[in-house]
Write a structure and sequence with these properties.
The complex is a heterodimer of chains A (about 110) and B (about 110). Chain A is mainly β. Chain A has no helices and 11 strands. The chains are: A mainly beta (about 110), B mainly beta (about 110).
Chain lengths: ~110, ~110
C-alpha cells in the first residue's frame, strides 16, 4: 500500500543546531507540504512543492528551507534551530491538478532546548 | 483575508448524545471544503470533501453538510471511539490550491 513516512518521529536538539526532518511518500504525488501544529493555531503551512525542483514559501517559512530533487522526498531543514520552532511537524502529499484531499504522515515531534 | 473558524473548541458528549461541530469560512470562490479526523499522536486522516453549497456526505455516524458560509459535521449517536480532534480546511480564494486549516474541535465521548 502507498504511504507517507516521516523520520525521526521524535527529536531533541539544541538552539543553533541545523536539523533536517525527512518525508518520503510512495503515492507518486506531485504536491507535497510541510506544516507545523501548535496548540491554538491548528496546522500552519511552512513550505510546499508542486513538483521536482519546485519549492514555495508558506505562511511561516522563516528559519526553514526545503528542496525537491525527486518526486518521493521533501526534506525540511531548520537552518539554526530556535526554541520557537519546538512543535509537531507534519508532512503531507496530494495528487496534483485539482482540489484533492491531502494524505498526512505520522508527524515528527521536535524539541529545541 | 481567507479564514476558517471552528466551534466549539472542545465538546464533551455522552455516548449516544448527538451533536454538531461548526466550521465557518470566509473564502471568495470556494473550491473545496475538507473534514479530517486527528487522533492523539497521529497525522490527520481524511473524512470528506464538499464542493458546493447544499452538498452532503455521510460515513457511518458522521454527516457533513455545506452552505455558502459554513459547514457542519453532524455526529449521530456517538461512541467513545469517535473521540478525536476534527479539523476543517478549505481551498480556494487567494490561496488557490493551498489549504487553510481551522484550529479544530476536540471531541470527547464518554461511555
Amino acid at each position: 500500500d502507498a504511504e507517507i513516512t516521516q523520520s525521526p518521529r521524535h527529536k531533541i536538539t539544541e538552539t543553533g543546531r541545523q536539523v533536517t526532518l525527512a518525508c518520503h511518500q510512495t503515492w507518486n504525488h506531485n504536491n507535497m507540504f510541510w506544516y507545523r501544529q501548535d496548540l491554538g493555531h491548528g496546522l500552519r503551512l511552512i513550505h510546499y512543492s508542486y513538483g521536482v525542483q519546485d519549492t514555495n514559501k508558506g505562511e511561516v517559512s522563516d528559519g526553514y528551507s526545503v528542496s525537491r530533487s525527486n518526486t518521493e522526498d521533501l526534506p525540511l531543514t531548520l537552518e539554526s534551530a530556535a526554541s520557537s520552532q519546538t512543535s509537531v511537524y507534519f508532512c503531507a502529499s496530494r495528487a496534483g491538478g485539482s482540489y484533492n484531499e491531502q494524505f498526512f504522515g505520522p508527524g515528527t515531534r521536535l524539541t529545541v532546548l | 483575508e481567507d479564514q476558517v473558524t471552528q466551534s466549539p473548541e472542545a465538546l464533551r458528549l455522552q455516548e449516544g448524545e448527538s451533536s454538531s461541530l461548526n466550521c465557518s469560512y470566509t473564502v471568495s470562490g470556494l473550491r473545496g471544503l475538507f473534514w479530517y479526523r486527528q487522533d492523539p499522536g497521529k497525522g490527520p486522516e481524511f473524512l470528506f470533501t464538499l464542493y458546493s453549497a447544499g452538498e452532503e456526505k455521510e460515513k457511518e455516524r458522521l454527516k457533513a453538510t455545506l452552505t455558502k458560509k459554513e459547514s457542519f459535521l453532524h455526529i449521530t449517536a456517538p461512541k467513545p471511539e469517535d473521540s478525536a480532534t476534527y479539523l476543517c480546511a478549505v481551498q480556494g480564494g487567494t490561496g488557490g490550491f493551498k489549504t487553510i486549516f481551522g484550529a479544530g474541535t476536540r471531541l470527547f465521548v464518554k461511555a
